[in-house]
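Sanity check. The docking grid for phenylalanine depends on where the pocket ends up, so I'm generating a full predicted complex first rather than guessing from homology. Inputs follow.
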Amino acid sequence: MSTQQKSFSSNLGAILAAVGSAVGLGNIWRFPYITGKYGGGAFLLVYLCFVFLLGSVLMISELVIGRRTRRTPLGAYESLTRKGHSVVWRMFGWLCVLTCFFILSQYLVLSGWTTGYVWHSVSGALATLGTDSSIISGFFQQFSTGGWNPVWFMVIFSALVLVVILGGVQKGVELASKVLMPILVVLILVLCVRSLTLPGAMRGVEYLFSPDFSKLTGEGILAALGQALFSLSVGMGVMVVYGSYLPANDNIFKTAMWITACDTLIAILAGVAIFPAVFSCGFDPAGGPGLVFCVLPNVFNSMGTAGIVFSVVFFLLLLVAALTSAISLLECLTACTCETSRLKRWQGAGLFFLLATALGAVFTLSFSHLSEVKMAGLSLFDFVDRINSIYLPPICALCTVIFFGWVMPKEAMVDELSNHGTLRIGYLKVLRFIARFIAPLALLVVLIWGIFFAQ
Ligand code: PHE
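Predicted complex below; grid placement will be based on this.
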């Protein structure tokens, strides 16, 4: 097994790549609607606690483990373990690979739809639908159940991801993040300004920020924790791989805080871009997952000609966000393959591109040709959604904090966080306390609740 030689060229490049992984469909598509659903400001408060108390600890854990070993999850956990326990942690590495693979395959479905909507907004097809909700929902229904049509859009998206990965760590992943992340920030700011200057926009801001504690159920609190982990891309080894690419002089604590803060800010900005426009145009904000594909096109169409521009801008934003996240997932799978086999980078990337795209196609077709196929009474897409939200990520996150808090040698952690004693690490006690007690407990509760109580 070889230790990786690759790394990002600069600290900024590293932060942008990690923020690129974190900022994705989770921020722009999922965060706004669950925030609305579970009580706006009340949910936001809980979410912020989870992100900064637990999410950032997981982020630090993964970055430390990755940079310390310069390996992927397949070798990293094992190499920091005392002999005798290494088999268990090697198996955990494989579980991370499996989780990444399932998340990527499911992510490709939504990314394919997003690519389709970029096309339909550029071609003007969305603009011709008018402002009748049933027609717009019907269009989405027809598109998503349209057999191979959405699959082709997904293939285009996966091919873009593959091209970036083939470029390598610095000229592919890092360069793409350096170009795409600033574009994403500009696009989201443009949308925020437009949305906030529409008449009646303040009602949307209120909906997003004013706390309604009556809507914040136990389920909402668990959703906040799940969302915090998913949004930061932690709990499946992606950040271990990015950690292994971090420059040696990088201050991991600071980097982790930057990533966490940027990811959270962009999620909030997405809410600010979406809700004021939805309220101003008189639509129902409780659109659920359909908010982006059914409600927003209606919002854009009711803005007149300018709406066409905003529709293109919005779906491009979504595409860019999805791209940098999917890139990190394929990068993780590629790095793992190269570390454990003799395959070259292009072969490893090609292999997982084919496998994930094929499985993504199956999940996409589960809305049409394969709708009759059920697993545990669920459609294939819903089945993988369940695995990807209730089982795999919480299990992986739990194992990661246990490893960081209890298994890896404390000296290695201190040495890595302090850059061999050159940085002050006054936060160490708090960090270790959270990693050893609070985080495992919280994750255990999420896991048990998810398995036994989630419908
Ligand atoms: N964080 C990404 C998002 O918010 C999703 C993701 C999860 C990406 C795990 C990589 C790894 O959409």
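Relevant for the grid: The pocket of phenylalanine is lined by residues 21-22, 24-27, 103, 230-231, 233, 236, 238, 325, 328-329 (CB under 6 Å).
Also worth noting: The chain has a mean pLDDT of 91.
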